[in-house]
Every structure is written in structure tokens, then in C-alpha cells.
């Protein structure tokens, strides 16, 4: 446990000095006292420190001069590399993990090392592990967007030893040199994948590849969403469920088969022999499943459990679980921050606790209630009850973590696990494995098995989609705090291990604190008197979240990046809203209908049910816009066309539209909605993508009496040279200018002339590509806090 805590602490806060001090303290304690209790404390502190230091090196590594990560990035360079791992095939392309061998070409080539994650949008070659790749690529350092609540992509890659990424639209200019002839396991894996594709329909084949080969990235997104809504996504990842099934079936089969031999019974302990031989099919399955972290973790757990059988410690499964966790942390520093690691071990711990209580409770209840029941029927009932206990325990144990990481609670999960898991896990997985085993021996027999498996796959998919379609099968929740999670798990521990009054106090106290924390957060949002505007970092696009006094929320624009493979709403905007405790949005504003401003708003409309959607009246025919319209119509939101003169007072905030003019004929950018928000003498000016023409109209209207002098301006059009004219900056006279812009964008925004203009007016320039999300808070007395830096309350006259 100390090692796991030390490993996790490096992810939260890397304190190398503190860890070193604890290590020294642990060594001193161990050496200074012979008493076991003190010695164990010393060993625990030492384990904590060592695990912390090893994990800290994962997140903050030292790079040798020949490592590709030591280059000045971003840069364009020719690489010579080898595909180190099985390619990850996804709907939006292929990802290759490359081990770098050299940089440069010809006489300038030099030996190099390190890893690169290369994303190919359109791969023409059939890449495989062991292939050599050479060609020019643009290297970048992976970096998070910098928004609260977002997935930590940097740390995710660091745990895989990747500190450099690259992107290529296709591999036409990359030279592929096939590696050595693939080994038997690789040929087997490829043959099984081809067999599934040839013998089953597209969705059933994709499901079989996910269950048997771990290729879950090829599963259709809508089917993946159905699995998530029903709470059975764990079936899609090759983990403890699949490896455990292989281990159990192999152990039971081998034990029964070996027990048929009198010679073996007299000379060996058959259960131990069966456990030892079971490792062979487990390792074979790991080979065909490919090289992924979850499979390796599950195999390690299976090996430890089988080891417990071999060492006559079958009853010490909790010890085996702890050893498995410690061993995995030792082998993979930083792994405790992986969601799959947390879910796996929390689920198993919940199962162990629940089955232990069930085994102690059942005999007494059976004696009182089932005394007259026949033994066979009692065993059947015991099996059904045990299965219900297992399913419920796994659901309860993992639900808080699922809510924390995925902002989802699947209310249908207990039912889905009862009916779907037996079909897919107990029937389809064995059939798929049987087909995989038969493939190299008899393709005809393998095809027959797949023919039998296809109806099972169809039934499983139908059940998953039917359950997912039930209203409230899954509900979205805001991100629970770590304190709330701690109280929930304290209540679970009390329910599992405490007795009598202590159990009632522990459960009641834990759940009571959870309720108080939840109510306290809701009350704080409803009674707050701050205006908070957060300019999110969404790449080359715009998105701002406005939290009004009293808890109302506006989302102004929501787009970014270049294509539709990355949903900005799902990946960036929604996690921020959930992290702020926001479950509903009152108003969506689309300043103008361009993808980099509305691309992520369909997801926000679907999940946050806005009451109104404000637009400038333009309605394009693009597929992305139609998806937004459909989502808005489904939730029943009201469309509102906004033009100059529109006003909406709201919770003490004056909301005004300064553009576009009501007359038609404006271009897409100059037709942007321009809003001002005024509160406590401070004003925000949100300008969309207006350019020189739109800015001239805005300044002309200002001379007619519509004030745009503001404390904060959202820099027009991402800082392009065609915007932020001197006349606009002079009319606004901002103290703070926020540029929403993508890192290393091809337009080179913000333009240096624009930066010079704002600095010439002594405005402090903030950029989402460098600063991440920019948070501006105005309190009731006019004080303003920008990214944590307080400015005195010297409110300006914004009229």
C-alpha cells in the first residue's frame, strides 16, 4: 500500500526532496530499532519514497543529448525509426509507436534514441511491429490544452515512455521497410483478425476483434457509446475478465483431465500441476491479444493467483491482490494513475469484501430459511445469489471512480451485467477463443465456430443497444471531489468490515458527509455573487464559459482544431463544465457558423440541455451544423436570432449585442455576434471573428453612443492581422486582451503586429496556447481577478 501511495503521489505533486527525506528516515528507523512495528513503519516509508522517486522520473525524466526529446521542438527533421509496438488502428487513423534509431540523412545522420508517437490520418501501408520507417516528419512535444478537468494526455504518454509526437496526413512520403518475418504469434493474430473479418458481418467482426484480440479501437463509435451507457464497457477491454476466464477454464479442464490418470494422482498434487500447466494457455492468450498494458496487468494477476494455489495460499486472495498491485507498480512506475488500474483493483477488492461477507452470512440464513430445500436446489440458489452479490459489489465499488473519471453513472449496469456479461463473456469469448485456436489447424472448423458465434454476437449487441435505449439507462454527473470520493469509500469499508453500531455510524456518517458536500456545492453556486468568464483553450478555435451570479451559465462558441475526429465539446468543454459542478447550460451562443466556433456544441446541447441558442441567423448546410440543429431540437431549446440592439439583463449583469447590424449582406466573419457583459463597473467585450469592416462598424456605432470601452476584450479573429485595428483598440482601451489560438498554428496567430498594437496600449496580453484556460473573475465590489492575480476595484465607466 505504501508503494502504491508513493507511486500515486508523484502524479499529484512531484516532491523529490520530500521523498528522499522520507527514504532516509525509513532507513534510519529500520536500522535503529529491532522492534517489528517500528521496522515495518520504516520499510513502509522506504517503499513510499522509492516508488515516489521512480514514478517522478516517469513524469519528469532526464533526457540524454542523443534522445529525440532533447531536441528544440517543434522541428522538422528526417527520422529513421522502427515500429516498436502493434499499431493502434482507430476510426480517425493509425497510431505508430516508433523507436528512433537515427536523425538526419547521409553524412549528417547521427545515432539517436527515444520514442515518437506518430498519428497517420490516412495510412496506405499495412504497418506492423518491426517495420522500419524513414522520412521527414514534424516533431512536437505533447502538451495538454491547459483546461481544468481535462484528461492529462502528457502524463498518459509519459507513462508509456513517449515524450514526442508527430502527425502526418498520410504515409505517401514515408518509406516503409518491412521488418523481419513476423513470428508465429503475430501471424496467428493477423490470421485470426482476417478470419473474423471474412466470416462475420462488420459489427460482429469488430466485436470479436475487440473481445479476442484487443482491437477495440475499430468498434463503431455508436456501439461503443451503447456499451458505455449500459455500464459494460469493461467487456471490450481484454483485462481480468477475459484472462481470468481463460485461466479458470484451463485450470478446471486440466484438473479434470489429469485426475483421469492414476499414475499422475499417485505421483503429483494434481491441483498444483493443473495450476502450473494453466499458465501455458494464459500466456498464449496474452500473445494473441497483443502488447497492451491492461492485458499484461491481467496476466500478472492470473500468475499470482495461480501462484497462490501452488504455494497452498488459496485463501489469501487479498494478499495476492496486494502483491499484484505492488508488483505492477514496481514494473510500471506511474501505473497507479491509470484509470484501468484503479478500476481493476477497486473492483476486485470490492468482490473480495462482498464474497467474504456473503460466505459468512449465507450458512446461517440457509439454516433458517432453506432447511427443507434439497441440496441441489440450494446449490443453484447459492450460485445465483453469489452472482448477484458479485455483480452488485463490482458496480458499487467502481461507480464512484467511473463518475470521477467519466462523469457517468450507468443505472442499467446491474441489469446489463446480469444479462450481457454471461452472453458475451461466458459464451462469445470462449467461442471466439475456440475459433482462434482452430484457425492455424483447420480454417474450415474455425469458420464453423465463427458461424456459431455470430448469432451470439448479434444477440449481445441487440441487448446492449436495447438496454442503452431505455430512458435514464445512463445519467451524466458532475465531477465529484476527492473528499467526496474518500467519504464514499469510507462508508463502503464500514459496510464491509465494521460490525454493529460501528458499521451504522461509519455508513451513516460517510453518506451524511457526502450529502452535505453535494448540497454545499449546489448552494454555493446558487448564492454566489461573482461573474466568472473562462476563455477555454480549444486549439485553433473559440470557446468561453460565462458563469453569472446566481448560477446561470452561458457557453459562447465551442469549436477548435481542424476536423471532426476530435470532439472539442466532449473532450474539453464538457469536462470543464463538470469540474465546475455545472450540469445544465442556460444559453448557447454561436457567434457565427464556422466549424472552429460551433464544432463541439452539438455534444454540449445533447448533454447539458440548454434553454436557448443564440445565433446571428445564418444557417449553413454543412453536416456538422445539421447535427447541432438536430441536437438543439431534440432537447427543445429555443432559437434566438441576435443582432445589434439586443439586450438581456440577467442577475445584475447587463448583456448587450453590439453586432452584427440588422441589415443583411455581412460576410461570415464580420457577421459575428459581438456581445458585451457589464457587471460591477467592469465590462467584457466578446468579438467573435470580426475583421476590419466589422470593427469599423463597431467603432462607428460607439461614436453614436453605444459604449464598448472594456476591461477585457476577446481579441477578434484569433489575432489575425486583418483584425484588431488601431481604431478598435483605442475605442476599447482594454486592460486585458485574451487571444484564443492554437499552439504552433499554421497561420502564425497572433500576428506580431497585433501583439505590438495591444502592448502599445499597455494591455496585458494572454494567450490560450501558452497560458491555457484564462479565468477572469469579477466580484460584487468591482475587484477583478485574472488567472489568480487580483487587481484593485477601480471600476471603469463602460457607458
How is the CATH topology of the largest domain named?
Metallo-beta-lactamase, Chain A
Count, helices: 26
Rg, Å, rounded: 30 Å
- Main-sheet strand order equals 16-15-14-13-12-11-24-25-26
Name given to the CATH homologous superfamily of the largest domain? Ribonuclease Z/Hydroxyacylglutathione hydrolase-like
| Arithmetic mean pLDDT | 84
Domain unit count: 5
Polypeptide structure, described:
- The strands form 4 sheets. Strands 16-15-14-13-12-11-24-25-26 form a 9-stranded mixed sheet, with no helix packed on it. A 7-stranded mixed sheet has the order 17-18-19-20-21-22-23.
- It has 26 helices and 26 strands.
- Strand 19 (about 675-680) and strand 20 form a beta hairpin.
- The protein is globular.
Highlighted features:
single chain, 5 domains, 26 helices, OB fold (Dihydrolipoamide Acetyltransferase, E2P), 799 residues, alpha+beta, 50% helix
Concise overview:
Helices cover 50% and strands 16% of the residues.
Topology, please?
Layout: H1 2-12, H2 16-32, H3 36-59, E1 75-83, E2 88-90, E3 93-103, E4 110-111, E5 115-122, E6 132-140, H4 153-158, E7 165-170, E8 175-177, H5 184-199, H6 202-213, H7 221-230, H8 240-258, H9 262-267, H10 270-289, H11 293-310, H12 317-331, H13 339-369, H14 375-406, E9 408-410, H15 413-438, H16 443-468, E10 474-476, H17 482-497, H18 500-527, E11 531-535, E12 544-547, E13 553-556, H19 568-579, E14 587-589, H20 595-598, H21 601-608, E15 612-615, H22 623-635, E16 638-641, E17 647-650, E18 653-659, E19 674-679, E20 682-686, H23 692-703, E21 712-714, H24 726-732, E22 736-739, H25 752-760, E23 764-767, H26 768-771, E24 774-778, E25 784-786, E26 789-791
Parallel strand pairs: 5-7, 13-14, 14-15, 15-16, 20-21, 21-22, 22-23
Antiparallel strand pairs: 1-3, 1-6, 2-3, 3-4, 3-5, 6-7, 6-8, 9-10, 11-12, 11-24, 12-13, 17-18, 18-19, 19-20, 24-25, 25-26
Helix pairs in contact: 1-3, 2-3, 5-6, 5-10, 6-16, 7-16, 8-10, 8-11, 8-15, 10-11, 11-12, 12-13, 13-14, 14-15, 14-17, 15-16, 17-18, 19-21, 21-22
